[in-house]
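Protein modeling request. Please complete all fields; requests missing the sequence field cannot be processed.
Requester role: graduate student
Desired output: 3D structure, token encoding
Chains: 1
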Amino acid sequence: MKSVTLQANTSQEIENKVNAEIKNGFKPTLAIVFLSVKQDYKAICKIFDAENISVFGATSSGEFVGNDITEGAIVLMLLDMDPAYFRIKFLETGTQSTYENAIEIGVEGKNTFNNPGYLMVSGWLTEDGEQIVAGLVEGAGKDVTIFGGMAGDDLLLEGPEVFTNKQSSVNGLVALIIDEDKIDIRGIATCGWKPIGTTKTITKSEGNIVYTIDNKPALDMILKYLGVEIDLDSNKEVVTNISSYYPLQLERDGVTPVMRTAMFANKEDRSIICAGNVPQGAKVRFSLPPDFDSIDTVITECEQLKDTNKEQADALIMFSCISRHLSFGLMITEELERVQAVWDAPMIGFFTYGEFGKSKTGKHEFHNNTCCVVALKEK
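Delivered output (379 residues):
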């Protein structure tokens, strides 16, 4: 299976580059598209409609080809995957819940292939991250492969979208369902964050809102413990300082902690609103800001995954949290470069509002402040 990555600042540039690839004899069947909300994804989809190329797409908060990061642009990967080996399914939360939609997607995959794997992107459904994973597992089985991410919108926090050829939605789910009997899908959800301090208890929470930690207001606890100052009149300041540098680690027995990012703070009740659910009674620790050791951990886990696979990849896709980009700063380009070097394959990705995938010791679940790396290889 051949893969080609493209990067551009306008839809016209993309059209010219796609046409050039086709004129050179490449016959892509699938386009994986990540782009800024500033871009016209409908115009992009028309380009692929004209060539009978299926689209799996999401808006981003920054996108990249290899370690070349852009903002406000378009990146895509063209693949000549046999159309018999994949299906694209789009559903929108509304008449059915996100959980019910995810079940339906899981069931359709099982009805289409004996061994389906799922790449998933979702719109502005931050509170439903766990429900997406749970629904897919319910519909397709506990051993199913799931990787993906939540769309971004350049940190506007107003309405990221997902799309395919003729459908799009802020509340949508788009699944790329792949026949794993034909295409090998290997992935890892990894973060490299180091815990700091003692274990604490979430003493009051509801869904993704944390009210108290160790019976103290959650926001006050974080500000005092970490010694950071935050302008509570600026939501983006909260995102930058709390979620980027000091995410919570939810501890669980026998498996890797799962990260939770604080996206907003409520100055009236001193609660924090996270990008995923935080159960009442959960044990948590804060995290140290990342360093080069964090990247080393990510690379080690990628190398272990590749050693298990014992094959190069035809294509790499990465779903990396926007908070990771904010906290790593310039180091993020090194992480991207080193991940790609593990497989030495074409790679695209985008910065997300949440990630789906399986950690080294855990089950498939919804993550924050994590990167999910997916390697595709035709059998």
